[in-house]
# Entry
Amino acid sequence: MATSIKKLPEIEQVLSGNGACGGCPATMALRMVGKALGPNAIMLLTPACSVASMGMTPKLGYNWPCINITFASAGSSASGISHALEIMQEKGRIEGELPTVFSWVGDGGTYDIGFQALSAAAERNENIIHFCYNNEAYSNTGVQRSGATPRGTFTTTTPTGKRQPKKNMAHMMLEHNIPYVATATVAYPADLYDKVVKAKSIKGMKYIEILAPCYLGWQFDMPDTVQLSRMAVRSGAWLLWEAENGKISFSNPTAHFINGKKTPDQVNEYLMRQGRFSRLLQGPDAKERIAEIQGDVDREIAFMRERAKITI
Amino acid sequence: MRSVTKAYRPISWPTLGAGGDTGSWRVHRPVVNHELCTKCQFCWVYCPEAVIDRKKITIDYRYCKGCGVCAVECPTGAIAMEKEE
Ligand SMILES: Cc1ncc(C[n+]2csc(CCOP(=O)(O)OP(=O)(O)O)c2C)c(N)n1
Ligand code: SF4
Ligand code: SF4
Ligand code: SF4
# Structure
C-alpha cells in the first residue's frame, strides 16, 4: 500500500516563490522528492528548467546545497562527490549519516547529452540517485526534440512532427544491472514518494525517472498538469514500475494493463489534449500516424510484460 | 567540519521568494470555499509552489502563482479561480 497523502512528511525542500512557471511539473515532483530525501542531501543540476527555477543569485529556491554542473557530467560529478564524502568520513571530517547525493536532470541531460557519464556511473555502481524529470523535450531553451520526445510530437526542431519513437531509458538503466530503477509521475505523488524513500535506503546506483507534463512544451492549459500525467498513465503511454535487483514489479494502474485485467484507454484522447500533436491530428495521414503512436505504446507494454518475466 | 574556505563559499542561500514575490504573476486567484472542503489535502499535495496550509487549507497569496492545479484536482469543487482585479 502506498503511503497516504495525509501521512506525507511536513518538510518542504522546495521553497515557495521560486522561479519555475506556474503549474510546473518538475517543481511539483521535486517537492515530493524533498519530502522523501529530507534535508541531508546534496543536489546536482545540469543546465535545465530546474536551474532557471532556482531563482536569482544570491537567493536559492531549494533548501539543499546545490551544485550547477556542466551538461554532460551529472554521472561523473555525482560520483566524485559521493567518493569525496566517503573519504571525508573515513578521515573523520564528517560525522553521522552521509548525505544522499542526487542529480536532478532533465531528459535532454539524461537521454542525450549526459548519457555517457551516466552509463559509466551506473556500470561502476556509484552510490548516487540519478533523477530524470522527463518533460519529453529541451524545455528551458524553447522546446527542442530529445531522445525522450515521443513520435509525432511537434517541437521547434521537428516542425513536421518527430518521426522516431522515444528510447526506453529506464529499461536501459535496468540493463546496467543496478540495484534500483523506478518510473513515476506527478499524478501519483505517494507512489513517487515511496519509490524515493526506497531508493534512499539502497546503497549503489539508483535511477528514478519521473514523467513531467510541461504545459508550455506540450501545449495544454496550465491547470491541467496533473490531468495529463494521469492520462499518460491510464493510456499506457507512461508505465509505472520499479525494479529491485533486476526484479520488475508494476504499480497500479499499470499493473492491471500488464496482467490483462484492464485495457488501457486509447492513446488518441491523450494526444488530443496536447497542442504538440495538433498538426499531426489535423494532417491528411492522421489515422496512420495515430496508429503508429498507438503501436509504440502497445509494443512498450508488450515488451515490459515479457521483460518482467525474467527474474534471474 | 572545518571552517568553509573562501573557495567553497556558496554564492546563494535558500530563501523564500528566490524568484521574487511570485504572487504578482497571478492572473486568477484560487479561492477556497470552506463549506465544500473536506480537508482531503489533494490541493496541498499537488500545489507545485507549497503555498497551501495542509491543516487549515488556506493559501499564501504572496507566492501563489495562480496556476489553477489545485482547483482542477479538488474532488469537491471547493476551489474557484477568480480573476484578479
Ligand atoms: C553544453 C551545453 N549545451 C547547450 C546548453 C544550453 N541549454 C541550457 S538548458 C538546455 C535544455 C535542457 O533540456 P533538458 O535537460 O531536457 O531539461 P529541461 O530544460 O527540459 O528542464 C540547453 C540546451 C548548455 N547550457 N550547455
Ligand atoms: S517550461 Fe515546463 S518544465 Fe520548464 S519551468 Fe516551465 S512548466 Fe516547468
Ligand atoms: S482538494 Fe478541495 S476538498 Fe480537498 S482539501 Fe483542497 S480544497 Fe479541500
Ligand atoms: S493556484 Fe497553483 S500555486 Fe496557487 S495554490 Fe493553487 S496549485 Fe498552488
Summary: Residues 39-83 of chain B form a domain with the Alpha-Beta Plaits fold (CATH 3.30.70). Chain B has a mean pLDDT of 94.
